[in-house]
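REQUEST ID: PR-0412
SUBMITTED BY: lab tech R.K.
PRIORITY: routine
TASK: structure prediction, single protein chain
INPUT:
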Amino acid sequence: AGSRVSRAPTNSGRNTKLLSRDIYVKALVDLLAGKGCRVPQAPNKMPDSPLGSQSNDSRIRRHCEALLSRVGNDPELGSPSHRLASLLLVEGLTDLQLREHDFTQVEATRGVWHSARAITLDRLFLPLSRVSIPPRVSVTIGVAGIGKTTLVRHFIRCWARGQVGKNFSLVLPLTFRDLNAYEKLSADKLIHSIFPNIGDSNLVVTAPDRVLLVLDGLDECKTPLEFSNTVACTDPKKEIQVDHLITNIIRGNLFPEISVWITSRPSAAGQVPGGLVDRMTEIRGLTEEEIKMCLEQIFPEDPTLLGQVLSQVKANRALYLMCTVPAFCRLTGLALGHLYHSTLPVPDPEPPLPQTLCELYSWYFRMALGGEGQDKGKVSPRIEQVAQGARKMVATLGRLAFHGLVKKKYVFYEQDMKAFGVDLALLQSALCSCLLQREDTLASSAAYCFTHLSLQEFVAAIYYYSASKRAIFDLFTESGMSWPRLGFLAHFRCAAQRATQAKDGRLDVFLRFLSGLLSPRVNALLAGSLLAQGEHQSYRAQAAEALQGLLRPDIAVCARAVNVLYCLHELQHTELACSVKEAMQSGTLAGLSGPPHRTALAYLLQLSEICSREASLSLCLSQSVLQSLLPQLLYCRSLRLDNNQFQDPVMELLGSVLSGKDCRIQNISCLFSLASTSLRGNSIGPQGAKALADALKINRTLTSLRYVAPLLASGEGPQNKALATGDTVEALGLQKNLIGPVGAQQMADALKQNRSLKELMFSSNTIGDGGAMALAEALKVNQGLENLDLQSNAVSNAGVAVLMRALCVNRTLSSLSLRENSISPEGAQALAQALCMNNTLKHLDLTANLLHDQGAQAIAVAVGENHSLTHLHLQWNFIQAGAARALGQALQLNRTLRTLDLQENAIGDEGASAVAAALKVNTALTALYLQVASIGTQGAQALGEALAVNRTLEILDLRGNDIGVAGAKALANALKLNSTLRRLNLQENSLGMDAAIYVAAALSENHGLHHINLQGNPIGESGARMISEAIKTNAPTCTVEM
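STATUS: complete
OUTPUT:
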């Protein structure tokens, strides 16, 4: 840790008086709260030292050593450091993640974590670009057992050694298991809990933005976070409920300048409003090679056993998918390893390998029980005694597990254990060590949790199975009182109904295990230890009937219904699924359209290896059947929907599926190619085709779409011929393929003949200048294309020059995107010439090129002459004040431009003033985007003066600047006069209480503003209250984000 801090030379001539613990903590809390308080510095502080004195360096070093002691020095089993060194950047949570059980998420996505971008651990808290800002609140999600806590510990190890997070002087790691021990807590006490043995110190963090607070395991928080009902608190000394403390920290009311990193299971992460999350990442699962590495760590000296286990994992597709989760992979390895060392009581040269989840966990339990005597099939008094003790312990833990599952509680403390009769002295037994893990918390109390969520569900199912045979009342009722329920089957039906009604799927796997305990193979495995020999026989058939009874005509084919098929599989009652599978293979699905068969089909679409490659649903689907299957179609790679007599409304539904974040479809054949879906012979018109085409603008997985006429594809001859002769398709999206210059040439040849295509989405295809030149030649001839997107295609000045010559003669193209290419000032000159001659182009997007001032000035001159352009995007083009002045002059002449985007360009106060001067006379511009444009007080004042007279601007975005109180006052005064501005973004502008006063006063007089964003500004509780009261009284239609 010494390598990551600077040592200041000692000054023997002076002695620094050490501060007491309380004084230190107060100073540190004040600093984190943004109050600017500083602990007195030692005179020997080095100017370039991030921490200050040598004494402080020593304290930080001891802090690092303490962290290393807590988290350990070595990576954990099954967690290759290179997997944790790179996370997936994701754009929020999907419906699947928010609503479904973790197992369902892995099964549905087939273990493939889909994201276009990754970020390394050392850049996790850094800006994504040179002009963006670091995230304040970061959330990392992952299913149970994926390695979230392992990731946090890995990060802390690396930070303490100076390998990552070098921009942080202090990392404060907390788990929700720690926080659950408190009812109320202040920010002050929070610091005490992080530094329990801080002693005397003058440790100082030079800036609170160099502090990282880690909150690990949001899903384990005992109280859900309710951001809408939490009262704001800015006093670090005030004790409030722990969940309120956390929400205030995340909101920025407390510690507004520190960075916050939250880890959570996906469903719990949904508690944090998306608007507060600056960056969301996801931990990917294990690859095939990493699964092998994980199993090698379990069997380091037995390659033969390793090979047997690995072969079994690869042979069972469902098992392999779940093994992408490290914790499940370890459990599987241990269970299968024990299996190959054991045999069933009945003679069998090779023990039957587990085919269901419950079988696998039964083998794990046999291992946990030690397997003593089970392989010989004998019963002795000692074995019976061991079995009886195990049954008693499992029953006690099972009751704890079940009630925890019902209450969504996954972490237990000593008081919980005692309340459910768990003998803490027996938790050291071999059985308990395989089921539970103990962890000391900062509150000096132990926390217990099952080693994996699925083990809690399995133990809960065993408890419910046993208890329901003698229970009189509903076991799900907390009070224990309900209408009488007699007999196991009555309780089984109750559990099935509860699981089906649970919207979040939390009882899905529990019900699978409960069903699996009734299977003959599981009974044979656990007979004599946890189950009675043969008792399943009296329940199995009726349980299967009860499960199938849940598939009623009025029940939609939803995830809960599909889970019923998983339960039937666990029960080894597979007749329904097998009949549908055979019908799919023989092409006779048309006769199987009842609710049970629809659900079985949905189950196969999600799980079957054959359906994952291609699901053939030709000649079998009506509109109602397809509509009921739409959620499951998300997870198919390839769909064939030939000859189903579909019409446009069905295609609109299918388009909605393709637009979903969860969509994994790659091929749809409707002679309208998009991964593998076939709709040949269907009655689909232009409206249906447009619905699919619109979905392609969003979808990131579909690569092939086939439609009756024309046939569209990504560049091969026959497909482009169909495009050339087609007369119905209006939009085609081929984003993020590998079309290249050759494919672009073929597409261009088709465009020379095509007269119907309006939109061509061609981004991220690496067509280069050669492809751009080919498309330019087509644009000289084609008179139908209106929207052309060439984003991220490595187009440089040469390609742009040819495109612009075509634009001089083309009279239909109205939107052109050249974002993220390599256009420099030379290419901008060609653009400018074209804009002077073209009178049809309305939208031009040049974001993220290399225009600089020279290129932007050339375009500005053209804007002054152009009479058609309405939207111009110049974001992130290294533009400065000179170009802004030129654009300001152009705006004084132009009468058509409605949107100007200059975000992430350092135009400064001078540039903002030039644009503001133009706004005083311009009567066309309605939207002006100046995010992160280095605008200060003077620029804001100039904009305020312009708003006082301008009557057309509706949107002004100034996020990420530094306008200050004076700038806010100028804008607020302008709002008193301006009646046309509708949206104002002042997010992250260092505005405090004084600014809030001005804004509140403005809202009292302005009745035109619909939305104002003040997030990321330390306006405080009082400022927020003033603004809220002003809105209620004078501007009830205005929405304020704070």
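NOTES: Residues 381-406 form the longest helix (26 residues).
REVIEWED BY: pending
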